[in-house]
User: Fold these one by one.
Assistant:
Number 1:
Amino acid sequence: MPIGPGTALVAIGAGIAVGFSAIGAGIGVGITGAASAGVTAEKPEKFGMALIFTAIPQTQAIYGLLVAVLILLSGGFLGGTAGDIPIPIGLSAVGAGLAVGLAGLSSIGQGIASSAGVATAAERPETFGKGVVFSVICETQAIYGLLVAVLILVFSGLLSGNYIATTAAGLAGIGCGLSIGLSGTSAIGQGIAASAGVAATSEKPELFGKGVVFAAICETQAIYGLLAAILIMSFTGMFTGNLVATLAAGVVCIGAGLATGFAGFSAIGQGIAAAAGIGATAEKPEMFGKGIVFAAICETQAIYGLLVAVLLMAFTGLISGDMTLTLAVGFAAIAGGLAVGLAGLSAIGQGIAASAGIAATGEKPEMFGKGVVFSAICETQAIYGLLVAILIMVFTGMITHDFITTLGVGIATIGAGIAVGLGGFSAIGQGITCASGIAATARRSEAMGRSLVFAAMSETFAIFGLLVAILILFGLGIFTM
């Protein structure tokens, strides 16, 4: 029985689907189970209610298992008749696995929300329904992942056995999986916001609608990831069957998926800010608008990721269908995606600062502007990532279509993307400093200048990453090509 690389990739896709979703579900159920154990120790009669909340984060693992079984069944593994499946189909299976598996990490956020639901419902049974609603909100990311996974399996022909995928389309499937899978982690931020919504609603039922609004904000990152995945499927011909055959086009899709996928982690910072916004609104209803502003600030990183993804697809001809690009440009697209995507995690630091800004503004309304300033500082890392991504697109010929042809140069640009992308993580430390600076400024306004100096110190490491990225690009000579 011949078992080639394509068949092996199918098995790997199934493993990814169930493995990552099991991680998410295990952690999510564990978080809720811990709260449930505490509740039922004091109130054994609440066992049934606690069991329902604990079961909610399990569904992501079920989605992963379902896709894994579909992949194995279609590949002939369940009947012991696994054949020599083409590599493009194997790549598509990996893409489907990434979509549902990584999106399954959304269970972590769902567990955070469900644990809050258990605690409040135990004290106030009338909050049970609202607690379930807040918990279920965090499910949508997993549903998006399941949807994309099934679409990949259908349009690649794996489910029907009528294989139509090209290698480029298989790689595009991986891009789709990365886009929706990684951005599905936005549910972690959503869970943080939802748990605050549960707590606030238990005290003031009229806050339910506003709590849902704050929680829903953190879903936009997943929507961007879903949008990018659908665009990739559309522009590579998956919907029509007129599949692209240019290998470089498939590699570009991976870059686009990384841009929107990693940028989706920005929702964690947004969730931190949104949770603070819910708490402030519960104390002072007039804080609702300002809370939304602070939470929305953390959205820009995700917008940068979506922007770069669309530009990559536009400049390389995926949108127009004029794909004469080189494989070197494909790898440069991965570099651009990593630069803006990884740097998007700077929003976590921004969310920490924004939450402090909300608290300070709630006490002293005149702190609103200063809080925004401190929060905005943490965005510069994302701007560095966006800048490097644009430089890569410009100087590798994506905009002019005078594409570089040296494969080594294209691969080397990935180093530049990693340097500025990972350097963007420094914003997390900067956010912690900014949060303290906001509190200090609220106490004494003259402390703002000194606090800004301390906050700026964390930025130097992002500048190191930007410097190395530019030196790499300069050393490759692409500025003069």
Number 2:
Amino acid sequence: MIREFHDIPLRGRNSFGIEQRAAHLVECDTEEDVARFFAAGMPREWMVLGGGNNILFTRDYGGTLVVQRAADIRIAADEGDTVYVEADAGVEWDDLVAWAADRGLWGIENLSLIPGKAGAAPVQNIGAYGCEAKESIAAVRTYCPETRNTLVMDAAHCGFGYRESVFKHQLKGRAIITAVTLRLSRTPRPRLGYGDLARETEARGGATLHNIREAVCAIRRSKLPDPAVAGNAGSFFKNPVVAEHVAAALRMQHPDMPLYPAAEPGTAKLAAGWLIDRAGLKGYAEGPVGVHDRQALVLVNRGGATGAEVLAFARMVQQRVEERFGIRIDTEVNIV
């Protein structure tokens, strides 16, 4: 079924709780509904809206927002140790992680409690606690409104990088992700080398699949604000990746600065939260917008903030970090 809405408020459809409106919003229950909607006529401007967990509306949206409601999870292939799981784009990501954990399937447990839909996971190449979605994604199914074709792309063609993919760039506004296939394993493969994860997992009895998931959930809940209480989009900024000699020079000045390996040779990843904290901004607020007092990567709507106010505050944070460390931190959130 296709449901259409006009001049619709968006406050309940974005985790920042921003008061903006969309000229047109269409909800599609199936992949076939998506194709049927576009076959009836191409909107002048359109964009996919998932769970609204990684978006900041700074204005009313004058085009069409496409919302996918299909939310089925199924085993696409079972090859013994390796199991291929296909999830519709409208599946809540954490429901997918829980589904896998309940069936003893390893690979995405470190990505527990990340808000948003399964269809958004490849776009952002979501990651947490030393893991990224690209490590488990086998294929992504997309629909192209211009050609009206369905295309299944294997992971090698998705251009995955740190919080990057072709869906954020070359295919933005051209392809709609309708389903994601994950390659999961029945063999235990715990990854506990990030932050407090090993300690929290051990406290729950050791490295079982459910213990790791519970540990990740507990850590996230202790550090991240509930959007129902304080509007936010999770991590607003990406951890900057810099040349190794830049990281080494900063480490000489700040011996306690966290430093992580990066995928590209000759580079290292810095902790944006630490940079923001050391720039004196953790817990800092201006009017209705502030930096969360437990996780400096998170900007919060303290009540009644506009998208423009959040964006102006974010630009201030970027400027202060750059003045303090000479490092530019980029935004992770999709700004509209």
Number 3:
Amino acid sequence: MTHTPSPQIALVTGAGSGIGRAVALGLLDDGWRVVLAGRRAEPLQTLAVEAEARGQAALAVPTDVTDPASVEALFGTIEKTFGRLDLLFNNAGVNAPAVPMDELPLDKWFSVINTNVTGVYLCARAAFGLMRRQAPQGGRIINNGSISAHTPRPFSAPYTASKHAVSGLTKALALDGRPFHIVASQIDIGNALTELSERMTRGVLQANGTVATEPMMDARHVADAVRHIAALPLSTNVLNMTVMASAMPFVGRG
């Protein structure tokens, strides 16, 4: 008799819109059971209902990734419901207004760092613990980086600093996870068209002071890249991947 493996369990943060939603839909199509986390309950529940209508399994868990108690509750729900976690797509993130740093209110700095660094760390920490103690042991953590993890846009100090921090965290996770079959990846995305990035189609400040429109790509191509990494065995990893609109000003930026 052929043994059918149990569906694997994935968690997507920032799943209510944009890249998170596209990735969640892709993983559902691949047969994953997907936990949908995000601050806004309504879009998470809408996505869960859509998945159920297609015979797929999604669980909406409203979560503030900057709040340790909220993250702890999220992972408690995952462990109680499924008993394990095989994949975390650490996607939730925010940006700050593009203004000279001395004009940026400090609360915007803290918002970016709390979400993009502390939030990523809290979710990775909780996933690491669950993946370490579950049987069979191990799992995969994919962090959403950015082109800004390599080089900044003008007036992007908080976001750029946060994404450089994610790069360091990804490498530390990849190293520290080795004894426990936990692997870590970072996907650096350039100009995926989402609700938040749509404004870029009307012009973006360039390093030479001009404002120019930039090519964009469909977010489903990011989802396809995450699905590719997620489908690999834990013996194989893509440590870093850059997925970008081909003609965007990244190579040669500045």
Number 4:
Amino acid sequence: MHYLITGTAGFIGFHLARRLLEEGHSVTGFDGMTPYYNLRLKEARHAALSQFPAFRPVIGMLEDQRLLESTLEASADVGAPEVIIHLAAQAGVRYSLENPKAYLDSNLVGSWNVLELAKNAGVRHLMLASTSSVYGANEKIPFSEGDKADEPLTFYAASKKAMELMAHSYSHLYRVPTTAFRFFTVYGPWGRPDMALFKFVKAMLEDSEIEIYGEGLMSRDFTYIDDLVSGIIGLSHVVPSEENRVTMSGIEDTLSHQAPFRVVNIGGGQPIGLMDFVDTIEKVMGKPAVKKMLPMQQGDVPRTYASPDLLVALTGQKPEIGLEEGVRAFVEWYVEHRAALQL
């Protein structure tokens, strides 16, 4: 199949594109190469993907509607994409407090351009990356897709929830089959430098202190990157329709009654305390961390906790890779690449 993926120089987009290319699919990758973090890392990801003849990179911003549309023309020899997977976004909860306009431009204007592209291309399936942040400080656990998500705590979360709502309207008006999937604290090799695991490992190797927010009392539903990619690919084959509405007892399907639109969590349902997370890193690295305990930051939530029931019902799979295995894979990757990529 031919996939169009936005954000292929990003952490998740890189892993997803590589898996699809390894499986024999063709991928057109669209990425803005923004300087939010180390460009060497982004360039190295695209360089690795470019080793596959079936990968076609396009560099540009989502806000440039004409350039985004031209990606279809650039891949005319392999035909229009059957699936569009929209991963590109301005990421980061805390950065949204500093530069909210970046989230407006990328996550709202840029996502609208992707919706227009999917509508005009007549794709078989549009898939959109959302986030567990839309649940805000939800007190009901685990977080289920049908839970109220109308009280976002950051502009990042608000922009992702708005994207889901825009997509539902397009799905209804233009019958574009759409799945929005909500991530839960993804980690692994080639990860982003602003993420906790990356920062902690870097600091520990440099014998610097690590900053632990919320006095270490927070918990997160950590999801290893390979598990996330498997979940996305599994869902890509489940095009929302009444034919695959889940009717199993105890599982609430989010398939809309007005549109071929569905929201699905991709998380293992196994939240881990922040201090247990740090303990695992110390065990893998064989050294203690110098800890600096800090209060909860503005916009942070005390916990994330996914219900994987709908994902399992639709795909028969859920995240399974354990934290120690995943942390070890990241540490090995980081040690191998830190000098070359100046991490």
